[in-house]
Amino acid sequence: MGGACSRKRDQLDNEDRLARGVSGKYCKSGSSKWLTTSFSRPFIDMDPRSGKCPSLLDFSVRRVCNDIDQFDSFRMLPRDITQLILNELVYSQRITDISIQAFRDCALQDFHLGECPGVNDDWIDVISSQGSSVLSVDLSGSDVTDGGLMHLRNCSNIQTLNLNFCEHISDRGLAHIGGFSRLTSLSFRKNNEITAQGMSVFAHLVNLIRLDLEKCPGIHGGLIHLQGLTKLESLNIKWCNCITDSDMKPLSGLTNLKGLQISCSKVTDAGIAYLKALHRLKCLELSDTDVGSNGLRHLSGLLNLEKLNLSFTLVTDVGLKRLSGLSSLKSLNLDTRQITDVGLASLTGLVGLTHLDLFGARITDSGTNYLRNFKNLQSLEICGGGLTDAGVKNIKDLSSLMVLNLSQNCNLTDKTLELVSGLTGLISLNISNSRITSAGLRHLKTLKNLKQLTLEACRVSASDIKKLQSTDLPNLASFRPE
């Protein structure tokens, strides 16, 4: 949540590198967003110091995995047990070209191999042997090619397919998934080879609910093939610089859409006009587009909208008046320098807001008076540099706050720490680049729930924070300076 920097655009630029890890592959050590799509399984606690006895099943699964080289086939085991063994091997990253062969013809349902090194076309042959039993396949970051995907055609019941960061998949590979009529979720993040022509196979995926084409630079003109996918609820095409206003037109008939991400595209106000019929839309991300105040008039009828991201757009204070009727809004991102106190005044009716991001907006002490209307706020960021301790007085009574970022406000003093000391629900607090000193740390003793504290470029030392941690803030797990 914004550190010592004044803008957050770098986070967008770096997320791809984070998600791919140091090896350039998709890995679990990357972006936390991967948690929404990757495989995860309950942790099997085998540490005797924990005082908990593992179940016989857990113990048996772990024992088999430890001796995996001794087994040639699990075909005779019940499917659910075999699935647990595979999951454990994947989670512990002990699955290999050899051990995967033991799972041939086991009628397994899930192959979540997105975190595994060395996955290639040979592994597809094992997956294919499961036939119609396979429901979910994740090959993200693998070396699977177009030819390998051809073998998946035997798995006609696949419902979920993730091929993120698969650099060897092109339009030819797409052709092999056209027969997956039961597919409900498809993800092709960061693919330079997919084109509008190859996307024609999507027209056959009539049961598709979720489609992710993030960072696919060659898909301009291809969204026309989505027109008949009336069940589609989520579409992610952010960071596709090729997307323009004309690509928005085919989306106008997808009236079941609930989530649409078109950040970092060339969409303007004209393109937003095609979205006004999407009345079920709950989440809309428009950051880093050329959308301005005029375009927001097309959103005024989207009464189910709960999350709206307008960071780094051309929206001004005047445009925010168009949002005043969106009473369902819970999360609003206005990280843009054109927004001032005047714009914030237009939003006071949005009393349901729980997350408000004004990171780069030019909010002053006067503007914080309007924050008193947002009693339900759980997360607030104001980092434009215009606040003093006087403005924080209007924040101190927002008792629901769990995340507060006031970094870059260089005139804030220890008085601010005294004022926020009553926000006992705070989990994360950032007041970097301010006049905070070690003397003011005593005011934080009441924040027993605090897990993250950031006071970079302040007159505070790591040793002072460590002392506070040891005596009064036992839950503090991360702090800067460190």
Give the helix/strand layout.
Elements: H1 9-20, H2 56-66, H3 79-91, E1 110-112, H4 121-128, E2 136-138, H5 146-150, E3 160-162, H6 171-174, E4 185-187, E5 210-212, E6 234-236, H7 245-248, E7 259-261, H8 269-272, E8 283-285, E9 307-309, H9 317-320, E10 331-333, H10 341-345, E11 355-358, E12 379-382, H11 389-392, E13 403-405, H12 414-420, E14 428-430, E15 452-454, H13 462-471, E16 478-480
Parallel strand pairs: 1-2, 2-3, 3-4, 4-5, 5-6, 6-7, 7-8, 8-9, 9-10, 10-11, 11-12, 12-13, 13-14, 14-15, 15-16
Helix pairs in contact: 2-3
Describe the structure.
The chain is α/β, with parallel strands linked by helices and 482 residues long. The chain has a domain at 363-482: Leucine-rich repeat, LRR (right-handed beta-alpha superhelix), CATH 3.80.10.10. Helices cover 19% and strands 10% of the residues. It has 13 helices and 16 strands. It has a 16-stranded parallel sheet with strand order 1-2-3-4-5-6-7-8-9-10-11-12-13-14-15-16. Helix 2 (56-66) packs across helix 3 (79-91). The protein is flat and about 70 Å long. The model is unreliable at 1-7 and 17-43 (pLDDT under 50).
* Approximate strand percentage: 5-15%
Mean pLDDT: 91
Q: How many beta-strand elements?
A: 16
Provide the structure class. Answer: alpha/beta
Number of continuous helical runs = 13
Helix content: 10-25%
The CATH homologous superfamily name of the domain at 363-482 equals Ribonuclease Inhibitor
Rounded to the nearest angstrom, the radius of gyration is: 25 Å
The SSE string, one letter per element, is HHHEHEHEHEEEHEHEEHEHEEHEHEEHE
Query: If classified by CATH, what would the architecture of the domain at 363-482 be?
Result: Alpha-Beta Horseshoe
N/C terminus separation: 17 Å
* CATH top-level class of the domain at 363-482: Alpha Beta
Q: What about the largest sheet?
A: 16 strands, parallel
Unreliable segments (pLDDT under 50, ≥5 consecutive)? 1-7, 17-43
CATH topology name of the domain at 363-482, in short, is: Leucine-rich repeat, LRR (right-handed beta-alpha superhelix)
Q: Describe the global form.
A: flat
Going across the biggest sheet, name each strand in turn: 1-2-3-4-5-6-7-8-9-10-11-12-13-14-15-16
